[in-house]
Amino acid sequence: MEMWRVVAAIVMGPAVSLVGVALATNFRGVTEWHMRRSMSAASVLRRVPPWRWLPNAPHEERLARFILLDRLIGVAIAMAGVMILVNVGYSVLTGQPMQTVK
């Protein structure tokens, strides 16, 4: 078993989980900060709806929807971190090499 992969997975698993939990729970406003920064960076791309019959939502309403989406993505990221830890635990216990994509 390649030891560097195990060490990398042990470091990456909790790191990915912590980022996901911070986004999912809006820890200290990290999700709102992330969305405000993302929306300001993308502000040069004006929102022009392709259909004129769609109402143009106010900025705060769009921000709230994107924060909700970011929190859902944070849950998925946190679950991915847990899956990394489960995978490395299984590979260490069984002595089999970690599965990689080739």
Continuous helix count: 3
Order of helices and strands: HHH
- Percent range of helical residues: 55-70%
Helix vs. strand class: mainly alpha
- Tally the beta strands: 0
What separation lies between the terminal Cα atoms? 17 Å
Strand residue percentage: under 5%
Mass-distribution shape: elongated
Task: Extract low-pLDDT stretches.
Answer: none
Walk me through what this model shows:
The protein is mainly alpha-helical and 102 residues long. The chain has one domain (3-94). Helix content is 70%, strand content 0%. It contains 3 helices and no strands. It has helices at residues 3-25, 30-41, 59-94. α1 packs antiparallel against α3 (59-94) and α2 crosses α3. The two termini are 17 Å apart.
SSE blueprint and pairings:
Layout: H1 3-25, H2 30-41, H3 59-94
Helix pairs in contact: 1-3, 2-3
What would you say about this model in short?
This protein has 102 residues and is mainly α. The chain contains three helices and no strands. Helices cover 70% and strands 0% of the residues.
